[in-house]
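Thread: "does anyone have the structure for this chain?"

Original post by V.I.:
We have the sequence but no experimental structure in hand. Need at least a predicted one for the grant figures.
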Amino acid sequence: MQISIGTSMKANCKDAVAEAIAKVNNPNLLILLCSYEHLKEASALISEKYPGVPFIGTSTTSYYDTVSSDKRMVVLSFGSDVAAEVGIIRKLSSAPIADIAAMEEKVSKIQAGDSNTVCIEFCTNDEERLVTTMNVALERAKIPVVGGTIFDLSSRCYRLCHA
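Reply from O.Q.:
Generated one for you, tokens below.
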């Protein structure tokens, strides 16, 4: 699998993004992990630089090499050998099933299955409800879910399917 991992500890968001994406070459999927303070600006910069590329991100404390930090920016880039789709499960507390049809379409679009696909999710609340809801779309294809609960100020849940 073609993958690169770029990191930066720079305090200036624009400089950190430039350093973290330096190794990115023709991506089919991008994942951003960074501080909450940089999330909005970094997402905008990366989306502008790579329009149309499936992209998800979250604020987090990252563990890279031997150091953990909530100030490090990490950009994971997956190459042309990966098919990816991203989306958001909205209304998690009231009607999460509303987005399942769109998720099932994305699973079908990339021909996802149990031997070539993983679903990565980032959740800011009600992770049990999110995973239970996502399993409606994922269990038929036997797609495993990998992810974590993120405690910060946002309230959205992100998920990604890739093969």
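V.I.: this helps a lot. The helical segments are 13-20, 36-49, 100-109, 127-138.
O.Q.: and The two ends are 10 Å apart (CA to CA).
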